[in-house]
Amino acid sequence: MKKVMIVDDSAFMRKVVTDLLNQLPDIEVTVAARNGKQALDYLTKEAIDLVVMDVEMPVMNGLETLRRMKQQSAIPVIMLSSLTNQETTIEALALGARDFVEKPVSLSMIEKEWIAEFHQKILAMDHEVGTVHPPVPTIAKPTKLTQNSLPVSLDALVIGASTGGPRALLGIIRRLPARLRCPILIVQHMPAGFTASFAKRLDTETTVRVQEAVDGMRIENQVYLCPGDYHMTVQQGHLQLDQREKRHGTRPTVDYLFSSAADYYGPQLAAVVLTGMGKDGTAGLRQIQAAGGYTIVQDKETCTVFGMPRYAIEQGVVDEVLPLQGIEAKIAQMVR
């Protein structure tokens, strides 16, 4: 049974989320706190497996509470967010929140799909409760799964990520050189409204331009992030956005980007699948490999959720497995 603490200044929201979670199997809300200060106090007294916390609260807000929690324990945190505080939510992900869910503004918004998504994110929060120790620097020891090699001339790099991706992408973006020799196209599973704020956040971390993609945009040597609730594909050197049906239960979908990029760039393409739930990305990696491109996934030890990379490895569509620090270095080298 996973023990959950709800932190929200709204009594209505505490009750709604508590009632919803208590209906789910293997989940029990054992503590409800009104603000961050109260939540930190409870953590010293209660055995908690997961914290679900509002972003904006009086007394002590979600960001400050998250900072203090991360100094004390490794308990995973899912943020409750709304479209009015996207930038704060993105900052929370950068600080170490595992994920976020959009806060329903009314009971009518709480549909089966929302509940199922929330449940899936909670179940994905594998963790080890205990004191946080400074991370030991990881030496990038590549695990080569094939004899394939990186293209000598790289025309594009595509990246796919889900749960835990925002923090991983921040690390990658910070390591980029001042100028890119090829474009970087990113699909991060994220709802509509949040990707614009995330693109702006990434843009502050590098001298390279990072922007949310716009339909019909000509692809230049910069970083493009797919907007939430749209699929992004490469069509004749331009980006195309559409809202065809979800794939793997999500829109955007990594597979659509990867497959279209494989068709356009062929063997001059490299792809990276980062941390995340599910199977998205594997079909695209298979097509990239078949076209002569190079495929990399993040290793289990540095993933928040070892779902997408694991499935790709199991399906035999991965050329190389690297820890996140190794991926950061590899990408910086590839696009320099």
Strand content: 15-25%
Unreliable segments of 5+ consecutive residues: 127-140
**What's the tally of helices?**
11
Number of domain modules: 2
The biggest beta sheet is recorded as:
8 strands, mixed
Look at the helices and sheets and give the structural class. alpha/beta
Radius of gyration: 20 Å
- The neighbouring-strand order within the major sheet is 6-15-14-13-7-8-10-9
CATH topology of the largest domain: Rossmann fold
What distance separates the N and C termini? 48 Å
Oligomeric state, counting identical vs distinct chains = single chain
How would you describe this protein?
It is built from eleven helices and 15 strands. The termini are far apart. The radius of gyration is 20 Å and the shape is elongated. The protein folds into two domains: 2-123, Rossmann fold (3-Layer(aba) Sandwich), CATH 3.40.50.2300; 143-334, Methylesterase CheB, C-terminal domain (Rossmann fold). The longest helix is centred in the first third of the chain and has 12 residues, at 11-22. Helix 6 (165-174) packs across helix 11. It is of the alpha/beta class. The active site is at residues 162, 189, 280.
Spell out the blueprint of helices and strands.
Elements lengths: L1 E6 L3 H12 L4 E7 L2 H8 L6 E5 L7 H11 L4 E5 L4 H10 L3 E4 L9 H12 L19 E2 L11 E6 L3 H10 L9 E5 L6 H9 L6 E3 L10 E3 L5 E5 L2 E5 L11 H12 L3 E5 L8 H9 L3 E5 L9 H7 L5 E3 L1 H11 L2
Parallel strand pairs: 1-2, 1-3, 3-4, 4-5, 7-8, 7-13, 8-10, 9-10, 13-14, 14-15
Antiparallel strand pairs: 6-15, 11-12
Helix pairs in contact: 2-3, 3-4, 6-11, 8-9
EC number: 3.1.1.61, 3.5.1.44
GO molecular function: methyltransferase activity; protein-glutamate methylesterase activity; protein-glutamine glutaminase activity
Main location: cytoplasm
